[in-house]
Amino acid sequence: MHTAPDLFADDPARPAALSLGPQAVLLRGFALAQAAALLEGVHAVAQQAPWRRMATPSGHALSVATTGCGPLSWVSDRRGYRYEAHDPLTGRPWPALPPAFLAMAQAAALQAGFAHFVPDACLVNRYAPGTRLSLHQDRDEQDMDAPIVSVSLGLPAVFLWGGATRAERPERVLLHHGDVVVWGGVDRLRFHGVLPVEAGEHPATGPWRINLTLRKARY
Ligand code: SIN
Ligand code: FE2
Hints:
Order of helices and strands: EEHEEEHEEEEEEEE
Number of helices: 2
CATH topology: Jelly Rolls
Number of strands: 13
CATH class: Mainly Beta
Bound molecules: succinic acid, fe (ii) ion
Helix content: 10-25%
Oligomer: single chain
Number of domains: 1
Strand content: 25-35%
Distance between the termini: 44 Å
């Protein structure tokens, strides 16, 4: 199915911010004005740290293609999940956080009530049509006081927003190009995931959805 991108992005009936919990919020269109700069950053990062499909501990490949940037980035392989200062594919340090990523993460965190957010890791996920991310918690970080800032670019996707346990039935939240979700505090360990992305063509990203997740992995 072809998905018309951002059909409702400017709909005044869509509130700009949607509360997803006491300390979780969807900031609609918050990154729209910076989207081009963010995507330039993604391309620059992917030139230094190429897209790859990392293995899970069980030996399967993640369905999303990933790269990363910052002092640390998230790594998955047969040994498990962790943060590393070097890209295992190239052996080089991860590319630096593009300034536009840092500025966006801090502005969104502040808007969501988290002052002084200093991310040290950015995972960049690329979703091809049909690609999904199963329900999980972000729990590989040492610093659980810092929020997660998640920026959606390109094709829309349905975000699954669950509870504190896997058993809670997740809410479905449509994420568009330029939307930012921030969760922290009491909502920091909420389960979340992404339904299979529908095929489409987005003016900014072509056939893909790109997601930036900025975290503070270490104290
Ligand atoms: C993630 O949970 O790491 C990414 C979420 C998303 O792609 O929206
Ligand atoms: Fe996550």
